[in-house]
Amino acid sequence: xxxxxxxxxxxxxxxxxxxxxxxxxxxxxxxxxxxxxxxxxxxxxxxxxxxxxxxxxxxxxxxxxxxxxxxxxxxxxxxxxxxxxxxxxxxxxxxxxxxxxxxxxxxxxxxxxxxxxxxxxxxxxxxxxxxxxxxxxxxxxxxxxxxxxxxxxxxxxxxxxxxxxxxxxxxxxxxxxxxxxxxxxxxxxxxxxxxxxxxxxxxxxxxxxxxxxxxxx
Length: 217
Ligand code: ATP
Ligand code: MG
Prior knowledge:
This protein is an alpha/beta fold. It has helices spanning 13-24, 58-63, 74-80, 108-113, 125-135, 168-172, 192-197, 199-214, and strands spanning 5-9, 40-42, 48-52, 69-73, 85-103, 118-122, 139-143, 159-164, 175-191.
């Protein structure tokens, strides 16, 4: 059995906010993914490497065992479904919320009350479908892959379901948050087979992550 461990991370906030957790486990990533074009990054531990993948691809790499563990947002995990993944720890990083937003003049409460069929653009179709179904609101969901804020401004949709942290992108586009669906943070995900077969290598890292992330709650 290989002693090598592969950790899947996405560039940007997840990479940046995972670094202190790795540090707590005594691991330093020795190359910067923003500067390097390498997709496989070495660490200070010869047995541990980091692969850089798209945020929404992290669960897939871990599910199939191409990575032993990874860090993914709750949003990504809910959309993926989480098959084949063990999710032991909420890392309390990359915090934001999933919300409904509409153009500033749009009377959302009234549209919902009148039972109008809402057009909602989102990347998070599963979460959005479940949210509106639980409220008994009829929606037509329009799947987008980015820049959801644009959709209601050009008549593609009445509303969007998107991640919000400071709200500055909404404000810049004259949109307002009208409903909070859920709080989002990133989780550690572990391949189920790796958890058994590489337990000895993984356990101390998981413990260090857990201890360090509990101080961020
Ligand atoms: P890409 O930018 O490649 O299209 P992405 O938007 O899913 O993919 P990131 O922007 O790096 O990737 O977001 C990664 C994760 O960080 C998201 O899945 C979510 O959990 C969290 N996140 C997204 N937006 C915010 C935000 N504004 N504030 C805090 N966390 C966020
Ligand atoms: Mg993004």
